[in-house]
Amino acid sequence: MDGRNVKVDAYPNGNWVGPTIIDNVKPGMKCYDEEIFGPVMVIVRADSLQEGIDLINANEWGNGTSIFTKNGHTARKFQNEVHPGQIGINLPIPVPLPMFSFTGNKGSMWGTSNFYGKGAVTFNTQWKTITARWKEETAEAQKLQTFFPTMK
C-alpha cells in the first residue's frame, strides 16, 4: 500500500501520509532505521524465531512489535524475550486500549516514566497475576517429563 501523495480536501496545503505497508524490510533501509509515526506498517521477515528476536532486540527503537503464530510456546518465548514496550500477538498493532497508548522502550522513550501508558495507570491500579502454561507442539514435548518446565 502506498500512502504518498494523499490530498485532504479541507486541508489542501497539509502534509499527509495515507495508509502504507512496506514489506520485506531489512536493517539499513531508512524505513527500518528511523522510527516512523503514522499509518505505516513495516513488515520485517525472519527465517527463524530466534533470528526475529535477535533482529528486534538489536534495533535501537523499542516502540512496538508483533508476531503471528498458532503456537503458544512460540508466542510465550517471543513476549518474554523481545525488548519493545508494546508487543502484539496475532495483532498487527500492539496497542490494546487508549489508556495504554504508549509504552515504548529503548530509543523510543524519553526519561524514566511518562503520563501515558502503564506509568499513568499504575498509580491507581490493582495488580493481577496471571499464570499460564503453553506446551510446545513437538514430539519431544509430548514425552512424559519429570522436571519443572522452563523457557530454555
Features:
single chain; 152 residues; alpha/beta; two-stranded parallel ribbon; two-stranded antiparallel ribbon; 5 helices; 12% strand; elongated
Short description:
The chain has 5 helices and 6 strands, in the order βαβαββαββαα.
Description:
- The protein is α/β, with parallel strands linked by helices and 152 residues long.
- It is 22% helix and 12% strand.
- It has helices at 30-33, 49-58, 72-81, 117-122, 139-142, and strands at residues 20-22, 40-42, 61-62, 64-67, 86-89, 105-106.
- The strands form three sheets. It has a two-stranded parallel sheet. Strands 3-6 form a two-stranded antiparallel ribbon. Strands 4-5 form a two-stranded parallel ribbon.
- Strand 1, helix 1 (30-33) and strand 2 (40-42) form a beta-alpha-beta unit.
- The chain starts with 19 loop residues before the first strand and ends in a 10-residue tail after the last helix.
General shape = elongated
The largest sheet is:
2 strands, parallel
Please tell me how large the radius of gyration is. 19 Å
Strand order of the largest sheet: 1-2
Q: Bin the strand percentage.
A: 5-15%
Based on secondary structure, the structural category is alpha/beta
Task: Report the uncertain regions.
Answer: none
C-alpha end-to-end distance: 39 Å
How would you summarize the topology of this molecule?
Blueprint: E1 20-22, H1 30-33, E2 40-42, H2 49-58, E3 61-62, E4 64-67, H3 72-81, E5 86-89, E6 105-106, H4 117-122, H5 139-142
Parallel strand pairs: 1-2, 4-5
Antiparallel strand pairs: 3-6
